[in-house]
Every structure is written in C-alpha cells, then in structure tokens.
Amino acid sequence: MMIYFLPGMGATSEMYSEEWKVVENSIFIDWPNQFPGVSIGDVAEFIIEQNSIGEGDQVVGTSLGGIVAAEISVRSNVCGTVVISGSLGQ
Q1: Higher pLDDT, 88 or 46
Q2: What is the pTM of this model?
Q3: What are the DSSP E strand ranges found in 1-90?
Q4: 90: which residues sit within 8 A by CB, 6+ positions away?
C-alpha cells in the first residue's frame, strides 16, 4: 500500500512540510507541466497511469489535488481518500 499526496494548483509537493514526510510508504506528487485532455477525469487518469495507483493504495489531496484525489478514488478503487480544503460539490 502506498499513500499518494497531491498538492493544490500552482503548488508543488514542497507544500507538505517535514511533518508529512515521515508518513511511511508515501509519495509526494508534483504536477506535470502538461496534462492530456482538459477534464478532472483526464487529469485523474493521467496521475493514475503515471504513478500506478491502484487497489489498496490511498490518496490525499489539497485543494485541486483533493478534487483530483476524489476522482482517482472513483476510477482506481483505492482503499482510502482524504480531501483537505477541496470542494466536491456537483
């Protein structure tokens, strides 16, 4: 099981302070320079494929990262999702 952290838009993985970095089995993702497609679903699929996120993993996201983390959880059957300061309205 891995725990993937997604920062907010315009931020890097450095937004997570050293206290976060002690979490075992964690990967702190930086946003790529370009995404294929334009929807949140496209971004989620890209992040899933680039990081091999799958069943048994967990995702944590802040702001836009939280919205993408929620979409990843729907598409990849992760076992846990944490959204920090994100909007999930429909």
Answers
A1: 46
A2: 0.86
A3: 3-6, 26-28, 58-62, 80-84
A4: none
